[in-house]
Design brief:
Length: about 220
């Protein structure tokens, strides 16, 4: 059956306009989701990717002693954390109840020196999910950065009761804090540092005793 020129042209137009859709569905690329939950999750995932890149660069820093090379790497670390901050904020703009994004935003802000802003992010995460151990531990490290020792102690005791693995991470951060303040007190008196150091040592001994006791109770004879 013969077709008119008009019908042939129409068929060609339909075919051409359908090609992009065929390519999308064939796996050539993914169609961006219009679902807010998916958009928030995608932005959060991007933020985690940049955070992980920053972690890898920080690992490289540990073996670099040349000042010029260190500055270059530090700039790259900061750049990745800045990208992470933007991605986490994008996730929050789409889904303000994503407590994980608030907590991760707080982490990235803290790593770039924004301690007060990081506390606000952690507080929001904990308002949404009060028992979120990651935010409790991260916020405690921000407290340490601000020399808010009593707040950090309280966080540790909370974690020790609810999540001993996170408590162990925080205790290690406290030990680093003591070592750093012994070297550079930042206006703190020696007695304050010594008192906190003794508290950290005491808690370390208690944690070790608790872990040993739990290990013994798990044995099968």
């Amino acid at each position: 059956m013969k077709r008119s020129i008009g019908s042939v042209v129409a068929l060609l137009v339909v075919g051409l306009t359908s090609i992009p859709g065929m390519l999308w569905s064939a796996g050539g690329a993914s169609v961006p989701s219009t679902n807010p939950a998916d958009q928030a999750a995608d932005a959060y995932s991007r933020g985690l990717g940049h955070r992980d890149k920053a972690w890898k660069l920080e690992e490289q820093l540990e073996s670099v002693s040349d000042p010029a090379k260190r500055r270059k790497l530090e700039a790259k670390v900061d750049k990745e954390y800045q990208k992470a901050i933007r991605a986490f904020r994008s996730a929050i703009e789409v889904n303000s109840t994503m407590y994980q994004a608030h907590s991760s935003l707080g982490y990235a802000l803290r790593k770039t020196g924004g301690y007060e802003a990081s506390l606000a992010a952690y507080n929001q995460a904990l308002q949404l999910e009060p028992g979120y151990a990651e935010a409790i531990e991260y916020r405690a490290e921000a407290f340490l950065g601000l020399n808010r020792i009593e707040d950090a102690k309280e966080a540790y005791l909370q974690l020790f009761r609810s999540d001993q693995e996170r408590a162990e991470v925080l205790l290690a951060a406290m030990q680093r804090w003591v070592a750093e303040r012994d070297f550079a007190p930042q206006g703190l008196s020696g007695s304050v540092i010594d008192e906190f150091s003794a508290w950290v040592e005491e808690r370390s001994a208690i944690a070790g005793h608790t872990a040993s006791r739990e290990h013994s109770s798990d044995r099968t004879w």
